[in-house]
Amino acid sequence: MAIERELKLALPGDLPTARADALIAHLDHLPGAEARGERHLVNRYFDTPSLALSRAKAALRLRYVARDGHPGQWLQTLKSVGEARDGLHVRHEWEQPVKGEALELDALIAACDVPATAAMLRDEGDSVVAQFETNFVRRLWRYIAGDGTAVEIAFDRGEVAVVSGGQRHTEPLLEVELELLDAPDDDREGQGERMLFALSQDLRQVLPELHSDDVSKAQRGYRLRQKVLGG
After folding, report:
1. CATH class belonging to 3-230
2. Which residues belong to any copy of the CYTH domain (predicted)?
3. Model's pTM, two decimal places?
4. What pLDDT does 81 receive?
5. Contact at 8 Å (CB) between 78 and 119?
6. Contact criterion met (CB below 8 Å) for 156 and 138
């Protein structure tokens, strides 16, 4: 099990391309940051017809990751109950490669070391179906601070989508995510989280439209689903 610590910053969906490009240029020249290229991510989120996973504040995802010059890879991910405050999301996460375009729930249940979450997936897994999708291009940087704190910076541009009655309904998705990868002494003193907030302040100097966001991509999908399907 991993504990994910990630600071999420949202942008208006109609942000002009020139403004987004200014942020990219800033990150390309940020001291301590190394550009890591782009990925195209297609993410399908699964739940039961009664949305049992959502009610338990869990998210189940199948992700396809593609980048130029490399074969694509499928991953399955389970995220469990966590908390979000001032844009900082802290939650349990289990992620595994899978052979193809299908969930392998037995392996995910075996890896999940939170008994209540594993039991929920065991009880409900047979009835899960795809509910919505996020589709975006992710541009990545790895930032290393002077004390060794490592942060992955991701700039995501794409959409959230729900298909109903043969029609695709979408909303824009434009976010920056700052994920804590490593920190001295396992971040017992909280330096890693302070670094995430310091980085966010630096980015806001370039792009004031950035704002802390406690809403995850999964929550965005559920909200669009409710808007489209009415339930």
Report:
1. mainly beta
2. 2-228
3. 0.91
4. 66
5. no
6. yes
Token pair for residue 56? 């338990």
Separation CA 22–CA 31 (nearest Å):
16
Mean pLDDT, rounded, of the chain: 91
- Per the model's pLDDT, the better-predicted residue between 67 and 110 turns out to be 110
pLDDT band, residue 68 (cuts 50/70/90): confident
Asked if 128 and 53 touch (Cβ cutoff 8 Å), the reply is yes
Average pLDDT over every residue of 198-220: 93
Neighbour count for residue 91 (Cβ, 10 Å): 19
| Terminal C-alpha separation, the chain | 32
